[in-house]
Amino acid sequence: MYILKLIFRNAFRHKLRTWLTVLGITIAILAFGLLRTVISAWYAGVEASSASRLVTRNAISIIFTLPLSYEERIRHIDGVKIVSAGNWFGGIYIDEKNFFANFAIEPRTFFDLYPEIILPPDQMAAFIRDRKGFIAGRKLAERFRWKVGDSVTLRGTIFPGQWDFVMRGIYRGRDKNVDETTFYFQWDYLNEKMKKTAPQRADQIGFFMIGVTRPDIASEVAQRIDNTFRNSIAETLTETEKAFQMSWIAMSQAIVTAIQLVSFVVIFIIMAVMANTMAMTARERIGEYAVLKTLGFGGGYIAALIFGESMIISLIGCACGMAFTFPAANAFGDALSNFFPVFNVERETIYMDIAAALLVGAVAGIFPTWRSVRIKIADGLRRIG
Amino acid sequence: MIPFSYNLRNLWTRRLTTALTIGGMALVVFVFAAVLMLAEGLKKTLVATGSLDNAVFIRKGSDSEIQSGIDRLQASTIETQPEVATGENGMPMVAKELVVVIVMPKRGTDKGSNVVIRGTSAGSLLLRPQIRIVEGRLPHPGSSEIMAGTNIAKRFTGGGIGETLRFGMRDWNVVGIFDAGNTGFSSEIWGDVDQLMPAFRRQAYSSVIFRMRDQSGFNVLKARIESDPRLTVEVMRETRYYEKQSEMMAKFLRILGISLTIIFSLGAVIGAMITMYAAVANRVSEIGTLRALGFRRRSILTAFLLESLLLGFFGGAFGLFFSSFLQLFTISTMNFQTFSELAFSFTLSLTIAAQGMGFALFMGFAGGLLPAIRASRLPIVDALRAA
Lengths: 385, 387
Fold this sequence. Notes:
The structure holds two protein chains of two kinds.
Chain A: H1 2-11, H2 15-42, H3 44-48, E1 53-58, E2 66-67, H4 70-75, E3 80-88, E4 102-105, H5 107-113, E5 117-118, H6 121-129, E6 133-137, H7 138-144, E7 151-155, E8 162-173, E9 183-186, H8 187-197, E10 204-205, E11 207-212, H9 218-228, E12 236-240, H10 241-251, H11 253-284, H12 286-294, H13 299-335, H14 347-374, H15 377-382
Parallel strand pairs in A: 4-9, 6-8
Antiparallel strand pairs in A: 1-11, 1-12, 2-10, 3-4, 3-11, 5-8, 6-9, 7-8
Chain B: H1 4-13, H2 15-49, E1 54-59, H3 72-79, E2 94-105, E3 112-120, H4 123-127, E4 132-136, E5 145-149, H5 150-155, E6 164-167, E7 170-179, E8 188-192, H6 193-199, E9 207-211, H7 218-227, E10 233-237, H8 238-245, H9 247-282, H10 284-293, H11 297-324, E11 330-335, E12 340-345, H12 350-377, H13 380-385
Parallel strand pairs in B: 3-8, 5-7
Antiparallel strand pairs in B: 1-9, 1-10, 2-3, 2-9, 4-7, 5-8, 6-7, 11-12
């Protein structure tokens, strides 16, 4: 018990220095936590995807379409329960800065396939009835203060023209990791207008979302779908939803890796600061350690003193940093909601925070401990600051 | 004035502390410089891709060539505009191009990434004089031959010379590798537009590009084109077009860079402050002696500030030294706006070096100011008694 008290007293002997160090660690842990959260936000789409859903798209790349006639052919393939078609619309609301994802979908099958998207029944009925209707996620509706019944116009980039919509509902996510910033409207509206303005681009589908009867046969079903369309004009590539989402992340892998690296650099920087504090502390107390040794305390005792102090400072900093991570992540998530629709601090991030703090504490203690334990009593007593 | 060697010797006496403080600062400067270098590399690549003399036509409302479509009728209206320059052989310097992306696997993995395929016509090469063949030869027009940019040949399976790609139910032979220097074209594959259009079942070009006879006539051209009822296109200078293509990525890098720098520098300033406070605390009697010898408060303040600035200087120098090695690396990632792969490298410019060093000195100054003030305010008698 005595040693604990001694460690605490030691840790707060130089109040200014200790608090500066704690502040430094707080900032570092906060930065580390935020960076890890950015990475997990990157993977949010993967986390939210289901193993029993497949995505079929043109094998050349996502910008090529598939004929509408494929929908019926896929529906008849063994193991397929639901098929729903969709198009990335790429519309812009007033200005390019207001980016959000917008998709043309087939509402009837879409809601069966995505039970995690929750829309009140009356709003759903109104949406299905109105060909020009659209629904938006809760966060998106809040961002632009849209209310049910409002008219919204998007400028088409892929599909030219001004497109008018009427808001018919606001959806919520069943789970925390569901993206609530998406804009969905009726695929029929898109197709009718394309038939009039650019008939050769009508009846074309960007991707099919497919529900399979059992998750464990997903890969066989995917194989079967691709075999059906092999050597046709539009060959298909079918993957699980998870793999589809992963393929997007793989393309921006360099950025994810860079952020990961930087998050470790933060820890290195703070390690240098912390090690510096401990080195100075131990150097100033060399005389005291020599006295302790003279009194008969062993090297282990001195090591425990230095290590304990290092750990206490770094853990206090860690606790403060973690406490600030949550409000900071909320503020950050609001500011960057068009980059990252889902921005939650994960439990894993907290564990990594603690691991980082322990590591910093331990590494910072090693060198001063080694020096203090090894020093000869006479040298220690003789030495001045 | 207290001699400069006093500062250097002090730093040397506390080698470990000095090294750790400098190390922390060097890391901060390294990250700071790295992000700036990345943004600079991106900017340089995209600026170099476009030419001020070239005008790009895409469909009105589309943001990029990939989303755009210009039918043959409109394309021929555009190519007969009076502003089109004539080349050496008397042919107009016009290119009607198709731009699509295909998925190609990266070498060494089975993970695919989107790669731009550009269907080119005879004028395409005239408009981009920076392109030269480094291996093999130019593809023959009218055949299933293609050529790949150096970044594609290196990174993607099927992009090397002698390899084949399969799409549109045909095999395409890579017969040449071209180098477009530090531009976006180095991340593209080029083939004959009249072969690629039927292969991809496209009836429309993506863009029309021509060299202007006189680049100052751009505004007149723009006004006429955009009020022409036969055309639903939008015209931009090529430089502006490529600048727009990277706006989102540049913004992302900027936000990332600024927030990281602020957070990191706080950490490093705290590190410097701890070191300098300790330096002052350890030397109280020394300071008293100096004052008793007749050195003024101002000299003490300068001496400690100088010491802290030295820490910053060394930190900055090491950070910049190590970050200069980053220039050997090339980053290849997806540009969200074009859905396709773009390679660019870290680029160290004189401005970045100056900014990095300025930043390091600022950190040293901010960390050393308070401790130096404390040192200069110590009363002589108390300080001498402290030992």
